Amino acid sequence: MTNFSLDPLDLAALLSSRVCHDVISPVGAIVNGLEVLEEERDAEMRGHALALIKSSANEASARLQFCRLAFGAAGSKGASIDTGDAELVTRQLIADERTQLLWSIPRALMSKNKVKLLLNLCLLADAAIPRGGVISVSSTGEDDGLAFKIEAKGVNARVAANVPRLLEGESEEGAIDARAIQAYYAGLVSKACAMRVVVSGEPELVTIEAVPTQVRTAGSDNSAESAAA
To answer: Would you give per-residue pLDDT tens digits along the chain (229 residues)?
Structure first.
């Protein structure tokens, strides 16, 4: 296992690739819908095309708004973000007919990096239940004692085997690509917040916790391995 550090330009390029990957599908669907409108005269088909354009535009907007907070600057250095805004963009991105979001974090202003960490952990939780399920988001403590807990419940819930190591800044190959950059980036943000991310798993449940670096959770020594099993 290799501990490595990305060049800032490479990090920016990989994050940009990740964002483009997230929005290219709904934007492509909008283009397809517009082409149908240009060529189709059947009223029913035009109605389907308009519905596709509307749903795809909403999806693209939701993904961009989420990425703006999760990866973007979102204000000047040291800025705070309303956790209500974080909840809104997460609901727009995650909550659908397959996945239910239970958000239990009080509305308050929180440091920018901690909100970015929270949103990135929600992305990891969503990826852990590709067939859908329930994602529960909560917090305890405040200021330097703040901790996050995200639980993802669903059929065959699991994190990818490399995620716990990427969160620690490690890679088996000593390199990273756009598919893995989000977990690595979450680890960078956690370090900037003086927090450590701990992943644990059991049948149909993945738990992701971010705790202050001076706090150790029970079973943290082997939790990463059990989640990736």
So the answer is: 556 778 889 999 999 999 999 999 999 999 999 999 998 888 999 999 999 999 999 999 999 999 999 998 655 555 899 999 999 999 999 978 899 999 999 999 999 999 999 999 999 999 999 999 999 999 999 988 999 999 999 999 999 999 999 999 988 776 788 889 999 999 999 999 999 999 999 999 999 999 999 755 444 444 444 444 3
* Residues with Cβ within 8 Å of residue 173, at least 6 apart in sequence: 2
168: number of Cβ within 10 Å: 18
Nearest to residue 108, comparing CAs of 70, 143, 135?
A: 143
Q: What is the CA radius of gyration of the chain?
A: 19
- Residue 43: CATH number of its domain: 3.30.565.10
Type of residue at 185: Y
Domain count, the chain: 1
Task: Give the number of residues written for the chain.
Answer: 229
Domain of 98? 2-228
